[in-house]
Amino acid sequence: LAKDGGKHGTAVYEPSLHSAALERLQLRADLERAVVQGELVLHFQPTITLADEGAVPTVHGFEALVRWQHPERGLVPPVHFVPLAEESGLIVPIGTWVLQEACRAAVTLQLPGRAPVAMSVNVAVAQLTDPGFVQLVADALADSGLAPQQLVLEITETSLLAGAEVVAPLLAQLRAMGIRIAIDDFGTGYSSLSYLRDLPVDVLKVDKSFVDHVVGDEQGASLAEAIIAMGQSLHLTTVAEGVEGPEQAAWLTAAGATYGQGYLWSKPVPLVQAVALLTAPVREAAVQV
Ligand code: C2E
Ligand code: MG
Ligand code: MG
Ligand code: MG
């Protein structure tokens, strides 16, 4: 292309123009269209009960995880667009859609005669601090008919560095409505633990980087054990993220983690498969990756 660039007048191949910056501009424009045209989809990954050692593991709830069904690129994972959406502010309309869709899905997942299914939704700090967020959540619950006790909002530990003074009153309002608050990627935020005293929180999601080292790594196991013990003594629910092996699950159960989430049981799946996970025993229903 560069060689015959002259033939096409100004269309000279310029590697620098095709750099990451241009790619990002294109992606941003595409993403704006994606929201409007309904190209975003949710997948759901189950959280599994661990607390009762020896008991049959069951699905406690699901985490809603956004994907982008791109017309040319296929199914794009959030790592390729959520950070960009956060920088550009597009995370606010995206997050609104995710919240509404996840609430509707939770109602679909509420099968007759079954204990209430929890639905976890990831919330970026820009969404949380956007004026009207609390009302938006109230509307999403009212429109879908989902009970607030079934909704869990996940905030990453890193995003709390933005300031507990701003975030704490918002979380308190949401909690007063009956919604639960989870700290996502717990242990990776390099923040002072004092925020656990200042913020109204219900759930700690122990980051995969700890779960990865619970088997065959004495230091790693000690760290995970300390986090779970701290969660217990603060009367918080603990969810171990990224559980891939049965040995990890056994270790986490013995350590007293409340729930597990990971490829061992299921990767995130479309809604129809999530419904199937609820109706079959957990081990048999496990989706192979
Ligand atoms: P997260 O909230 O910590 O979600 C857990 C991620 O770990 C998911 O990646 C999930 O697929 C992956 N995972 C679960 N179990 C395993 C396992 O056993 N092994 C491995 N290797 N990975 C596992 P996913 O879906 O790609 O999402 C990545 C991140 O993108 C999420 O991390 C979250 O921070 C963000 N994200 C996803 N959906 C949304 C959303 O709707 N809004 C916002 N603000 N962020 C979102
Ligand atoms: Mg999460
Ligand atoms: Mg996480
Ligand atoms: Mg994460």
Automatic annotation (TrEMBL):
Domain EAL residue range list: 24-282
Source organism superkingdom: Bacteria
Name listed for the protein in its UniProt record: PAS domain S-box-containing protein/diguanylate cyclase (GGDEF) domain-containing protein
Organism (species): Klenkia brasiliensis
Range covered out of full length: 432 to 720 of 720
